[in-house]
Amino acid sequence: MVKKFNDLAQLNEAAAKLFIEVASEAIEKNGRFTVALTGGSSPVELYKMLAKTPYREAVDWEKVFVFWGDERWVPLTDDRSNARMAFETLLDHVPVPSGQIFPMWADRTSPGDFAQVYEATLRDHLQPAGRFDLVLLGMGADGHTASWFPHTGVLHEYDKWVAAYFLEAQDMYRITLTIPVVNQAAKVAVIAYGANKAEALHEVLHGEHNIEQYPAQLIDRSEEGRVMWFVDEAAAQHA
CA–CA separation, 171 vs 179, rounded Å? Predict the structure, then answer.
């Protein structure tokens, strides 16, 4: 499902309402809400909105369990850290218990070893089916989402829940949820805005199947209403 908005304020308002709706339903049904946050610039204003009245009061934050969809392998103090951004814009301003927040980072370990630890943590909290209530994603102008970058081996990883690999183009390690975990989430929300996303968005939604070039095509859209794209007019100009 593609939702188009005239401006970012409307887009973020709709995304915030979806976050609140899914959280409320999950907490009512299961007593908890599990969410995987996204990084980059796309969710910044959404997170700031959720941290303020009236949205802040609409979520029972003490029953929220926070994970990440992907991360750069950098300390939480690094400006490039997705977790740092989420703390500064949202998590430092809402009462989520610290023991229910799981950044993709730890000192004195390797990315590969940590990916195994993070997968074990997911299995502890998402049993039995490994099903997030909500996964938030962005999409790059190159058609990547999470850390599923074009022409990388992770695009073919279906055994692990969490993968770590060295991304040569960025000269750094990335950690990411894998395709099966995202595709079994109850809800997936993808935020994409700006004219620089227009070509990739068109190819992902309507182009020929080419996951190597446009990895966001790997998001399973076969179940009606499970995946929602929040896009502005600029990004949707060819969609």
Answer: 23
